[in-house]
Amino acid sequence: MTLPPTDSTPVNSAPGHTVKEQWQRCMTEMPLVAILRGVTPSEVLDVACVLVEAGLRIIEVPLNSPKPFESIEILADHFTGNVMIGAGTVLKSVDVSATVAAGGKLIVAPNLNADVAATTIESGCIYCPGVATPTEAFSAIEQGANDLKLFPAEMITPSVVKAFRAVLPLETGVLAVGGITPQNINAYLDVGCSGFGIGSALYKPGKSLRAIEQDAKNFIGVMPNSPLA
After folding, report:
1. Percent of the chain with pLDDT over 90
2. Residue 188 lies inside a defined structural domain of this protein
3. How far apart are CA 210 and CA 143, in angstroms?
């Protein structure tokens, strides 16, 4: 397959763009985070290239995948400027440092951890901790979270998201993660979700590149202003 071209500017030093600005740009272009849980270093670039060619701009490698920092480094070395690469399931501050060393700029977690929050903010990375209640959400904001991961979305219905949005700061983005499908995305968008994390519905070990590409297009096709619409 033909790999998308890279530019010569690393994500962390793109002229005129901070990491936060790059995050906002990627979210504006396509607010879907591809969660590649279980991906291996030998396949990660092929999978990511299919996703980027389809239109995704944010890729997360969960740390419970095989050799995740190697995969993050491969992606960070290849995609520069136009794609944000990061780590998911980040539970310890030492893993934030390892992600940064590998070139990652996004830290996603299923929970809120004070040490992880402090290390992430100090590193200059984007921090998206998992929250499931307003108390957790406001605690995350106080600790410097850029956006919030509403997790698991299976138990955070659109009506609950609407209640969250009524009290959360307008500048705080909320990404629904868990059980998101092309069929229910619009219900979440209608109540103020900023984006979505897509895991096994997009990628799982053993899935063919063609199937990954088709599922990516299925998700992209239902997004507002989709180039596939």
Report:
1. 89
2. yes
3. 41
